[in-house]
Amino acid sequence: MLMAFLAFSMVPSSCLGEDVLDPDQSSSSESSSSKSVSSVDPENAEDLVSGFTPDYTVTVTYSTGGAALSGDVDMVTSVVDGCDVTITNPGDYGIKYILTGTSQDGFFKLYSTHKQEIELSSLNLRNPDGAAINNQSKKRTYVVLTGASEISDGTSYSDAVDDEDMKAAFFSEGQLCFSGDGSLKVTAVGNRAIASDDYVRLLSGTVTAVSSANHAVRGSDAVIITDGTLTASASASTSKAVSTDGIYYQAGGTVTLTSTGSAAYDSDADDGVSGTACIKADGDLTIKGGVLTCTSTGTGGKGMSIGGDAVFAGGTVTVSAKGGNFGTSSRHSYAKGVKVEGNITVSAGSLTVSSAYHEGLTNGSYSDRVITKYTQTGGVVMVTAADDAVNSSGVLTVSGGALYGLSSRNDGIDANAAMSVTGGVVIGCGSSGAECGIDTIEGSYLTIDGGYVISVGGSVNPTNSKNSKAFVTTSLSRGTNIAVYDGETPLFAFQVPSTGGTAALMSAPSMKSGSSYKLYTGVSFTPSYFGCFGTEGISGGKESDKALTASSSVSQGMGGGPGRRW
After folding, report:
1. What is the pLDDT of residues 217-247, one digit of tens each?
2. Are residues 187 and 110 in the same domain?
3. Are 189 and 296 within one domain?
4. Which domain-ending residue is among 362, 382, 414?
5. Strand partners, 484
6. Which tens digit of pLDDT belongs to each residue from 125-180?
7. Which of 294, 329, 362 lies at the terminal end of a domain, its last residue?
8. pLDDT over 50 at 19, yes or no
9. What is the model's pLDDT at position 559?
10. Both 353 and 252 in a single domain?
11. What is the b/e burial string over 543-559, where b = at least 16 CB atoms within 10 angstroms of the residue's CB?
């Protein structure tokens, strides 16, 4: 019965991969398009305000009657016009500036060749003509939050000076290192909310950045989250909640990012279109801890767009792309959950990705023919998408952790080269027809040398004839709880998706080629991953009359027909 079922049709081209890349090049030609800024140390101890001892202190108090300076004012040069305050530090010494009070028409502008501290102490400052805080110092600036502060810009940036940048409601030429136990809300209607021509780092405190005109948070070299709470939202066309030419690094804290703007045609952008994103990093992304939530609702928007490598080594990451695709087949921005140009590595933590109209988690570059790897040694990754849920341009390897890809109209997991499973739990669920639960490119097969593997779709992809572990193939009923037994011992249970294909390949570490196994339907079990897979608490159900005989290879696919290429 098994052999007759396997011979149902010839191997579908869709399940033999969706790329024309030479699979033999998947190792020798693999490269990362990483543009990480090597000079940025995301754990630099010099960013801690505790290591800075100011030589002098100047307090600026804003009010409706104008701004007043107090403290060591003789150590600085100052120009005060109403609530417009410009201060120059003429010496090689550190100064702490305390900004407090309220003004709806003022600013604080600083010139300095030495690092400094700016304490925002219950400050409420708006500049209708440009940046509320304009730091022209290229040295490190410690921003300490005490109390609740709010600053904002206006639609006009008429305060801008020739040959000087003023790119945000809170702008700095040098590093901005936020800390403290207070809060800061920055609202921008004329440009970015927070921007540094170096990097932005949050070590503690609560920061909210909102821009309806541009990016919410922009760090040219890096955006680094060590701890604290960051909420950033961008609603303008082509804008990003967080933007950097360098790296995004998070080791702790709670970050909530929202992008609602739409993509737009742009002759200077790749493919002639510039999209929106919650995170746009031209370099690497590294998540070691904390909580990160990205929600993109704009047309053509992405949850994450990473130009280098992406490393998930801890923390809890949730990414959702809810908007539709933008443009035409030749000029477009697809609404993807996480798009990575380089390699993806998962070793710890959890990553949950959803995409309503396109791919969920993808790496590599089709236009530049960049072949990159997906490697998972730990952690939990769950991806749901309309198109391919997980799509790797190169070799996809899982040796630990858990990976689940569910697609409503394409492949669950698609490796455009070889795929190897040596441990962990891997589940791929694709749609009906030619699409697969787990798909690999023609000539580079799925190799199972360990772990639990489940592939459910319209077709079953051929596997490597040199598998060291065995598996069973069968057809399953949608929406049912099934379990595979070795005699009277349950091996695992799985809830079949209510939609999609029904051709299945299933493997457990203890399966042996030539041995027979039982299929039960309607079982109860305790899920251990994704709410649909478990090895504990399996009971009840009814034994199926389908014979399951384990094999170590599938040379022909089950079901299928021609499909789209990568």
Report:
1. 999 999 999 999 999 999 999 999 999 999 9
2. yes
3. no
4. 362
5. 492, 519
6. 999 999 999 999 999 999 999 999 999 999 999 999 988 999 999 999 999 999 99
7. 362
8. no
9. 41
10. yes
11. ebeeebebbbebeebbb
Residue 292 included in any domain = yes
| Residue 145 vs residues 83, 219, 291: alpha-carbon distances, Å | 21, 19, 21
3-state secondary structure of 89: coil
Cα atoms found within 13 Å of the Cα of residue 56, Cβ hemisphere only: 17
Torsion over CA of 538, 541, 542 and 545, rounded to 10 degrees? -50
Same domain? 54 vs 198: yes
- What is the total count of domains within the chain? 2
Beta-carbon contacts of residue 507 (< 8 Å; ≥ 6 apart) = 448, 451, 452, 453, 454, 469, 470, 471, 472
**Amino acid letter for position 96:** K
Q: Are both 58 and 196 inside the same structural domain? A: yes
Kindly report, residue by residue over 265-322, the tens digit of the pLDDT: 888 877 788 899 999 999 999 999 999 999 999 999 999 999 999 999 999 999 999 9
Which region, left, alpha or beta, applies to residue 369 given φ > 0 means left and ψ of -120 to 50 means alpha?
left
The larger pLDDT score, comparing residue 554 to residue 456, is at 456
d(CA 6, CA 553): 11
Taking alpha carbons only, the member of 474, 480, 440 closest to residue 454 is 474
Host domain of residue 64: 49-158+173-202
CB half-sphere exposure, 286, CA atoms < 13 A = 18
Question: Strand (E) positions, 356-401?
Answer: 361-363, 374-376, 380-385, 390-392, 396-398
Regarding whether 103 and 228 lie in a shared domain, the answer is no
Highest mean pLDDT among 30-39, 248-257, 443-452: 248-257
Cβ within 8 Å of residue 162, ≥6 positions away:
none
Does 244 lie in the same domain as 125? no
Is 58 among the domain residues? yes
Q: What is the CA radius of gyration of the chain?
A: 28
Query: For residue 312, what are the contacts with CB-CB under 8 A and spacing of at least 6?
Result: 287, 344, 345, 346, 347, 348, 349, 351, 379, 381
Distance CA 525, CA 544 (A): 17
By three-state DSSP, how is residue 74 classified? Answer: helix
SS3 523: coil
Phi and psi, residue 27, nearest 5°: -105, -45
- Identify the residue with better confidence: 2 or 110: 110
The answer to whether residue 528 is domain-embedded is no
Q: What is the pTM of this model?
A: 0.92
- Judged on CB neighbours under 10 Å (0-12, 13-18, 19+), 65 is exposed
Tell whether 67 and 94 lie within a shared domain.
yes
Tokens found for residue 41 = 């140390």
Coarse DSSP helix, strand, coil percentages of the chain, rounded to the nearest 5 percent: 5, 50, 45
Task: Find where tokens 């399940």 sit.
Answer: 15
The confidence band for 560, taking pLDDT boundaries of 50, 70 and 90, is very low
Cβ count within 10 A of residue 105: 15
Is 536 inside a domain boundary?
no
Query: Taking the mean position of all CA atoms in its chain, how far away is CA 448?
Result: 28
Backbone angles phi, psi at 3, to 5 degrees: -65, -35
